[in-house]
Amino acid sequence: MPTESAMNGGVGTESYAKNSTYQRGIVETAKDIITEGINKNLDIEKLSSTSVNTFRIADFGCSTGPNTFVAMQTIVETAWKKFKTELSDSQVPDFQVFFNDRTSNDFNTLFASLPPERKYYAAGVPGSFHKRQFPKDSLHFAHSSCTLNWLSVMPQEILDNSSPAWNQGKIMYSGEKKEVLNAYALQYAKDLDSFFKARAQELVCGGLMALVVPTVPNPNHDLSSITFPSYDLLGTCLIELAERGRFDAAKVDSFNLPVYYTYPNELKAIIEKNQDFRIERIEVLNIPSKHHTNPDPKAYSLTQRAVFEGLLQEHFGSEFMDELFDLYTEKIEETAVLLNPKETSMVTFVLLKRVFRMT
Q1: What is the pTM of this model?
Q2: Could you write out the three-class secondary structure of 257-302?
Q3: Order of strands across the sheet with 94-101?
Q4: Which one of 31, 274, 323, 354 is most buried, counting C-beta atoms within 10 A?
Q5: Rounded to whole angstroms, what are the CA distances from 322 to 113, 163, 319, 326?
Q6: Number of helices (H) and strands (E), helices first, in the chain?
Q7: CB atoms < 10 A from the CB of 275, how many?
């Protein structure tokens, strides 16, 4: 099944650009903590000793904007002020930002909406962030927000009807079936290890990496607390469409969302296994809640459509998307799923420094 589809492009009603205000709130919330991290941990003296003529920044999983521009502006302006304060004007470097996402990302929309008064040179770098995308020791700052929950591939055992981890009738893992949960968790750990190994090659020693990672609370001993009611509801809608004869029920059995929500303790343990980075700061962000007093089912449905429609189209066909998300909107309203206390997603911020490792 597909795992490489990008967010909905363009700037239309169903685009990611128009339906990512929740992600925008996360980026806005992270601005102050990123600023603090740069001011405290970016070693200008050490960088200047290596004759930095261009300070290079990469945003991994940039999508189509405008959220990436907010994060990049924060990083560039903070670093520029720090260089300006600690060095002479002639030593302040140029800034270059690389926008990275999947090859199917709508880079045309991204570049058409670049801020005209930006203080950096811009370039696009298509390709998977689970692999190397840049020359060795070429980046000074790496950033990723709301992207590291995506898996590079789906674990094969989840799609194998002879496996204990076969996720029949479901499109997402939960704590109720530990074989499925373990398969997702193992793939996530592999992917994150690949991500860190790639960034360790690309970042200079002393370079920083800010990660804003979608997570869930640390689980207690009862893993059944790990549930995703809104995704389960989307799966229910797919089953109903199969019952209407839109496609075979086997299509649903062979589809799973390639996303995994780690928890802070698990994330910290994975990072600590990689000795190329030191954790400078890790904490759960106090973000604006995605739950409102009167949640808007249509707006929430559009948000999910902007994120997952590409995957769903590739697997089920584009002709069913309007019907699917109309039904999803109806069921969100009927079930009041957005008020479910088990909808417990949160965001964890991590600031890492690339360190020299003896080999």
Answers
A1: 0.95
A2: CCECCECHHHHHHHHHHCCCEEEEEEEECCCCCCCCCCCCHHHHHH
A3: 121-126, 94-101, 54-60, 139-145, 203-215, 346-354, 277-284
A4: 354
A5: 27, 33, 7, 6
A6: 10, 7
A7: 11
Q: Is 356 helix (H, G, I), strand (E, B) or coil?
A: coil
DSSP assignment of 83-101, as one string?
Answer: HHHHS-GGGPPEEEEEEEE
Q: How far is CA 134 from the centre of its chain?
A: 19
Strands (E), the chain: 54-60, 94-101, 121-126, 139-145, 203-215, 277-284, 346-354
> Quick one: CA torsion of 77, 81, 83, 89, rounded to 10 degrees?
110
Coil vs helix vs strand at 102: coil
Give the C-alpha separation, 48 to 93, whole Å: 9
Task: Work out whether the CA dihedral 16, 19, 21, 22 comes out positive or negative.
Answer: negative
Closest CA relative to residue 354, chosen from 39, 43, 32: 43
- Separation between Cα atoms, residue 234 and residue 167, nearest integer Å: 15
Amino acid code (one letter) for 272:
E
Is the Cβ–Cβ distance between 329 and 298 less than 8 Å? yes
Residue type, 356: F
Treating both helix axes as pointing N-terminal to C-terminal, what angle do 297-316 and 229-243 enclose, rounded to 10 degrees?
A: 50
Phi-psi region of 81 (alpha: psi -120 to 50; beta: other; left: phi over 0): alpha
Tokens of 237: 């809608």
